[in-house]
Design brief:
146 residues, mainly alpha, 6 helices
């Protein structure tokens, strides 16, 4: 039961971290790796899927909410949205490989929705980016442990 709770906690933290919530999933992943009690492939899969699903929420948010961008409650600042939009228009879908970056990456996933990037393309590129970040973090943690 504790294993399921740990994986669920990682999933929810990763999902929230990719959304508009001020969360970080990296400390949770590192903590679980450091215990040595959990499957590394499973931790990577859970974190990657959760983080990708959080970005998909941002994509849907971008699809329907862009008209509210000047509202105070809008999840991305106008400046960040403009910067991300310019970046996205310049580099296109490949800029989604930077969706792992803090703050800018979240804005980029909202912009991809605003600019109507196809969901399948979006999901594949974001999953690659998110998984890559978690792989680097996992290997760095393992290296520090040895």
């Amino acid at each position: 039961m504790i294993d399921i709770s740990a994986y669920l906690g990682l999933f929810l933290t990763a999902l929230g971290a990719a959304s508009v919530l001020p969360m970080q999933s990296e400390p949770v992943l590192v903590g679980l790796i450091l215990t040595g009690e959990f499957s590394l492939p499973m931790l990577l899969a859970v974190a990657s899927v959760g983080n990708t699903l959080g970005s998909i929420l941002n994509w849907f948010l971008g699809r329907g909410i862009e008209r509210f961008r000047d509202r105070r409650w809008f999840p991305v600042s106008g400046k960040a949205l403009e910067h991300s939009s310019r970046w996205y228009r310049k580099y296109g879908k490949w800029s989604l490989l930077l969706s792992w970056m803090p703050l800018f990456g979240d804005a980029l996933t909202v912009v991809a929705g605003v600019l109507r990037e196809p969901l399948l393309t979006f999901t594949i590129l974001v999953f690659i980016a998110k998984t890559g970040r978690y792989l680097v973090l996992t290997f760095a943690t393992l290296k520090l442990m040895s």
